[in-house]
Amino acid sequence: MPLSLEEILRSHHTRTPVVMGILNVTPDSFSDGGEFFDPAAAVAHARQMVAEGADMLDLGAESTRPGSDAVAPDEQIARLQEVLPQVCRLGVAVSIDTTWAAVARWALDAGATVVNDVSAGRQDPAILTLAAERGAPLILMHMLGEPKTMQADPHYDDVVAEVRDFLAERLAAAEAAGVDPRKCIVDPGIGFGKRLEHNLTLLAGVETLCELGVPVLVGASRKRFIGEITGEQTPANRAAGSLAAACCAYLGGASIFRVHDVAPTRQAMNVLRQIARRGA
Ligand code: HH2
């Protein structure tokens, strides 16, 4: 049985791993660009991820890979128009991956229940008020700069402390806009304005982010740092490295995992959960 929204929002307390399947309705995403741009292929992939044990699905219509160009809100809605309403009928929670309030509003009206904003409300602060009005859970992610330029020369003195402080500040901004802090989820933004060493230090330091008292989401799936460590150039061949990162993050206290490869992640998380229970 997929988890309810309430169970997802309490997952950090119960140590229940939540598997979030990625559905990129884009022509240019870094690992699966174009594969699910066709609405029928996108819905079929969503169905498959649910069958493989996804607890929720994250739909996006804009690639945020390093160097990518922004996609206007109208174009994002056009890309999702046929797909999102069908995916919302599959029986799992659906989040909308966008930085624009207009796209999030359309998606919530069409059946999505969670807002995933990689700009944490900085691109379009109206997205915070929208989440507040709708009582929608909100994912706040750390990013240094913006996708176009974020990998130019990222610098931190203490990456874990700086990301934690940024997320604390965005949690406060969301609360000031009326969002219930019990409905917020935070995310260190693996690969968003970070070098290899920053990504690894953040994955090793997830415990510190858990001090914020809300569920921590980690999206390491197939990302470039795995290729940098292993030499694997093809993102689709990085499932094992992605699993290692997700398992390590779970052991550090993260509870939500945004992944392309749902079946192996589900299997690994089920086993980890049973082992962790014995230790508790
Ligand atoms: N990563 C990507 C997109 N959205 N959202 C959250 N909360 N956390 C992440 O780590 C995250 C995210 C980038 O990955 P992907 O969607 O696979 O690629 P692209 O941006 O090229 O579509």
Care to describe what's here?
The protein is α/β, with parallel strands linked by helices. The protein has one domain (5-279): TIM Barrel (Alpha-Beta Barrel), CATH 3.20.20.20. Helices cover 44% and strands 12% of the residues. It is built from 13 helices and 8 strands. The protein has helices at 5-9, 11-14, 39-51, 73-80, 83-87, 101-109, 126-134, 159-176, 196-204, 206-210, 224-230, 239-252, 262-279; strands at 18-24, 56-60, 93-97, 114-117, 138-141, 184-187, 217-218, 256-259. Strands 6-5-4-3-2-1-8-7 form an 8-stranded parallel beta sheet. Helix 6 (101-109) links the parallel strand 3 (93-97) and strand 4 (114-117). Helix 6 packs parallel to helix 7 (126-134). It is globular and about 45 Å long. The relative contact order is 0.14.
